[in-house]
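During the reporting period the student researcher (J.K.) took over the structure-prediction task from the postdoctoral fellow and processed the backlog of single-chain submissions. One of the processed entries is reproduced below for the supervisory committee.
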Amino acid sequence: MKLILSVFILSFLFYSINSTFAKPALAVDGIFSVESQEAIAFDEKDKEKKPEKPKVPSVIMLGDSLTSGYGIAIQREAPLFSYAKKLEKLLHKFGYPVKILNSSVTGSTTAHAYSRLLTFIKKKKERRYVLAIIALGYDDSYAKFPVKKTYKYLERIMEKLEENNIPMVLMGMRAPADSSPEYAQNFNSIYPKLSSQFNTPFYPFLLEGVFMRPKYALSDLAHPNNEGMDLIAQKTAPLVMYALFEALNGRKPVKYPEKKEKQQQQEKSNNITKD
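J.K. obtained the following structure tokens:
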């Protein structure tokens, strides 16, 4: 009898200790323990989306050999001497921390640039485009493409940007020196016409101060050398900063009245050169 009683007491103590310290199973017949519920809650928190980092304001740069850094360095290093790179440094210096997405390609026609723009547009949700700079057409004129074709593709580019609410700055070009007077007149006129058509900021001639000047141009007297690219960035920066200021404040940058535009750009260019 005593033996039976002792066995009973020992069994009872063992059961009590085991019930107190043993960990419950995560799930029994579909009923989840406290431990499993905590694990699920942790997983749910882990799955929550982390707050997205603010998107850096980006500027689309559509250009050709005049802005790519062509001839300044070997091809793989040319982007380091490009108009986009030099302009970006100036903009940062004057308080515009934007990222210029350089799409300046040597030999690029306006048709090629339109295709590249479509790629940018596809990534619009991933980026914050605040401005586009259009510096195209020289390679079209160098190949003597019909002026109507160049106009058509520039117009398409500007329409696509407008459809996607991306403000723009248009850089004017001039036909190469070996062009016929008729071709040069027709080609040169498309830029002010497009600027008025879209009411967009307009820089009359990208190569102002560089074209036909050995100090600032390569041997062809058209493509800028390193000093020439610096000069172009300095001269065009005031107009780009105006457009950025308007765009970042929710306003569409528009074309200046010509006299006011020329005077303001000259004053700001002088200040940048002094700095």
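The committee noted the following: The radius of gyration is 32 Å.
J.K. will present the remaining backlog at the next meeting.
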